[in-house]
Amino acid sequence: MPEILCHANTVAVGACGVLIRGASGSGKSSLSLQLMSLGATLVADDQTRLSLHNGRVWAEAPASIAGLIEARGVGILRVAHAKAAISLVIDLDQQEMDRLPVYHSVTILNHSFPCLHKVDNPAWPASIMQYLKGSRRDPK
After folding, report:
1. Lower Cβ count inside 10 Å, N or C end of the chain?
2. What is d(CA 37, CA 137) in angstroms, rounded to the nearest whole number?
3. Which ranges in the chain belong to alpha helices (H)?
4. Distance in angstroms (rounded) separating the CA atoms of residues 138 and 140
5. Are strands 48-53 and 75-78 parallel, antiparallel or unpaired?
6. What is residue 63's three-state secondary structure?
7. What is the pTM of this model?
8. Is 90 exceeded by the pLDDT of residue 1?
9. What are phi and psi of 129, to 5 degrees?
10. For residue range 31-50, what is the model confidence (pLDDT) as tens digits?
11. Distance between CA atoms of residues 42 and 81, nearest Å
12. What's the angle, vertex CA 134, arms to CA 128 and CA 137, rounded to 5?
């Protein structure tokens, strides 16, 4: 079965896995911790193993880092962790400039996923949580 290891964090919100991509220092762990404070569960910090199972792309942590997340200025924290099927990708290397952005998508292991670009707004983590709980009405 196809499998890749990618430089990304992943959290789960219910049954929805959120793959958070970005360069080192872009804020992957910070966003993960913010989402976790709002109820998300850690899947993986810094490295995520993605594989295909039953027609879905699943994310999990490599065994050596499972249940660990770096909190800058605090240290390596031990946390509960899970596996999750990817539902959304967040790309921290791309800045969203539009107030009502067009739909972005990315393809991973031949599966297409909606993709959100980074937004510098204190409410952005809460907005991501609401997106996952419902959906988004695309602008016309």
Report:
1. C
2. 26
3. 28-37, 124-133
4. 6
5. unpaired
6. helix
7. 0.94
8. no
9. -60, -45
10. 999 999 999 999 999 999 99
11. 5
12. 85
